[in-house]
Amino acid sequence: MKIDKIIKSKRKTLAVQITNDARLVVRAPRSMPDFLIKMLLRKRRAWIQKKQEIMREKIINTKTKQFIQGEKFLYLGESYKLKIITTTIARSMLKLDKKGQQFLLAISLNYDPEHAHAIFLKLYKKLAREVISLSVQAYAIQHNFLYNKIRITSALSRWGSCSSKGNLSFTWRLIMAPQEVIDYVILHELAHLKEQNHSKNFWSLVEKICPLYKIRKKWLKDNGHKLDLYFYFC
Ligand SMILES: [Zn+2]
Which CATH superfamily is domain 72-226 in? Predict the structure, then answer.
């Protein structure tokens, strides 16, 4: 049994916690020796393993897409249901129906979910380019920023970046976030055109052009993991 973290403090008893990402965190009294901690944990092994299993299943269920009828997909912070129509067309097609708040997927007879994943990715990237480009242009004019090019990437670890040549990059995953969160990331990267580091000056410039930036930043920290399109090939 792997202990991911032990926190020792003035507490008197041992406490076990399974985090949202299925990690095992143990809180123990400072004076408790490691062998005793391990012994007490062994007694609770069954409970710990069951809890971790439930948590892992939950993670897979909430993150993995199956591309089935009625499944929900994010667009600008809102859930859109997937509607699948079987047709005789040669190639499957995906469309965003904003009015009906749904994604419409017309599938061909030899359709497979792996294909749907690729189609979704393509559409999300296209939508991201449209929405992000428009906002970048508008904010650049409004706040007098000069940028070079906009790139849409598949970056996993960062939402956006700004090169010394003035090229702005944004991950397509942002298209799943609410518009005001996308706007924060855009304003953050635009601010880097004037201040290349994360200095005090940088953050005061961000605050000036995006007064609620702290709330947006926190939203990304809390919800960023939901902005993805997971699919397990089996
Ligand atoms: Zn930055």
Answer: Metalloproteases ("zincins"), catalytic domain (3.30.2010.10)
